[in-house]
Amino acid sequence: MLLLWSVLRGLDNIQGELKKIGAVLISPFMGYFVGSTPVVIGVPMIVTAFAGHHVELTYHIEQADGGSRRGCSSPVDLQGLPFMFKSLCGVSNDLRKALKPGMKIIAEGRGSGLGLYASNFHRIDQ
Asked: Tell me: the pLDDT tens digits for 35-48?
């Protein structure tokens, strides 16, 4: 509602009727997205951090040979996880070279069956 109110208040600065209509129609969706993201992502992360326990989860490797990204050095990408949470960062180059797409790893750390804050992981030899 706050985003819709601010758009309606600023309509005088927008040139053209079509742009005004577009701004009014899109603002509720943008407000929902901006407002729901902290609840959908933040609440489970906070609950896991405080109420979680030691857990080990199995994941499949999506990519292990990618270069460093902003905020994540030597990443290993995991399959089936949301975009923002699919990378393990700071993996040694020796371990990364041994990992191939489709291989399984076990990540361990504090969390629940739905996810965890990984503190360690190791490869499952098949």
From this structure: 887 887 778 778 87
Spatial neighbors of 40 by CB under 8 A, at least 6 apart, are none
Model confidence, pTM: 0.62
Angle ∠(23,27,28) on CA atoms, nearest 5: 140
Is the pLDDT assigned to residue 111 strictly greater than 80?
yes
> What is the number of other CB atoms lying within 10 angstroms of the CB of residue 114?
11
Alpha-carbon distance 12 to 14, whole Å? 6
d(CA 93, CA 35) in angstroms, rounded, equals 39
Distance CA 56, CA 116 (A): 8
